[in-house]
Structure formats: structure tokens, C-alpha cells
Write a structure and sequence with these properties.
- α4 packs across α8 (170-193), α5 (83-99) runs antiparallel to α6 (102-126) and α7 runs parallel beside α9 (199-227).
- The protein is globular and about 50 Å long.
- By secondary structure, the protein is mostly helical.
- It has one domain.
- The longest helix has 29 residues, at 199-227.
- It is 73% helix and 0% strand.
Amino acid sequence: MNDINSQLPEVERERKPLALLGVAVPLSLLLAVAGIFLFAWIAEEVVEQHTVRFDTAVRGWVHHYSSPFLTHAATFASLMGAEVLLAALIVSLLVFAFLRWRRAALWLSITLAGALVLNLSLKYAFHRQRPAPFFGALLHTYSFPSGHALFSFCFYGVPAGLLAARIKSLPARICIWTTAGILIAAIGLSRIYLGVHYPTDVAGGYLAAAVWVSSMIAFDRIRTSRRNP
């Protein structure tokens, strides 16, 4: 086992705890709890239909600035949260396997599998109907929370953390996190711009993803600390 570990990248070796995303257990748990309370508050407001005025106002304001260029850009950004995301997931897992980043591949797989279960469970739990889209056809899946927002947060955020944990260059880390943040924000905004989601759907998707990822980080840190005291 020691010979095998010596051939792996240092961050992959079992004898050292893996500081995924550089977040400590207390902070991860704090973020998870805060996310739960915020999600519960938004979900209650959605169920009671107290967000109608806010959602309508934001949708109208965003649509006021629509243009052919922005429509094409929003369509492309939306694809980054669906078809392109799926292709990127497959490529990422293949690259991780080639680099022998087994923990990274396992972590990403579990995170995305949990995000899928979370997305379907929440959509069927709230049964929120879709808004009338500004562009494109009406979708027949439920609206709350936004699956694009949830999956983009999990997918683009987690690999950013996995890569940042393996790169020593500070400028490179900043570039990775900035790129991930822009992608996540653009995908969420594109769903509002296209009119296929309410703003609170996108916020709910981000919060649900934050709770799931923060919980995963805390669990991973606790598990590795117990296995490698």
C-alpha cells in the first residue's frame, strides 16, 4: 500500500487528509446550516406565493434589456448547464482516471449523483409550475428549484476546488475560481433571461447545491481525519 501511495499525487495519498476546497469542518457546517435556513425561507415564500411580485419585477426588468445577441449568449450559457455539462462531466472523469485522481473522481461522482436525487426530490415536492418563457418552448418539468443552477454550482464549483487543491500557483487558483464563478452565474442568469425559471427558482437551486456541497466537504474532512489521525 505504501508503494502504491508513493506513486500517486501527494493530494491523493490516503495518509494525508484532503482539504477539499480548503474549507474547514466548522465553516462547512455553518454554511450548510445557513443554506438550509435560507432555502427553507425561500421555499416557504414560494409556497405561500409571496414571491410573485419580486419574481415578476425581476423577470420584467431582465427582459427589458433583451436583444438578439443576449438571447444567443443566454442560450449558449443555458447549454453549459445541461448538454455541455454532461459532456464535460464525462471528460472530467476520464481525465481524473488518466491522472489517477481516484478521490477526485469519486468525490465528483457522488456530488453529481446526490445533486440529481436532490433536484428531482425537490421539484416533485414543491410542484411549482413553470413561468411562460420569453424565448423557446414551454417546458413541462417543475420549476422550483432550478436544476441548471443546482447542477452548475455542483459541477463547476467542485472541479474548481479539486483543481485548486492540486495547484500551487495563486494566480492559477484565482483564475480557476473566477472562471467557475462566472460560469455558474451566467447559467443562472440565462435561465431567468430566457424566462424558463423564476429568479427564486435559481436562488433555490444555488442554495440547495450549497447545502449539499458544504455537507459533503464536512463529511469528507471528518472521515479523512478519523482514518488518518
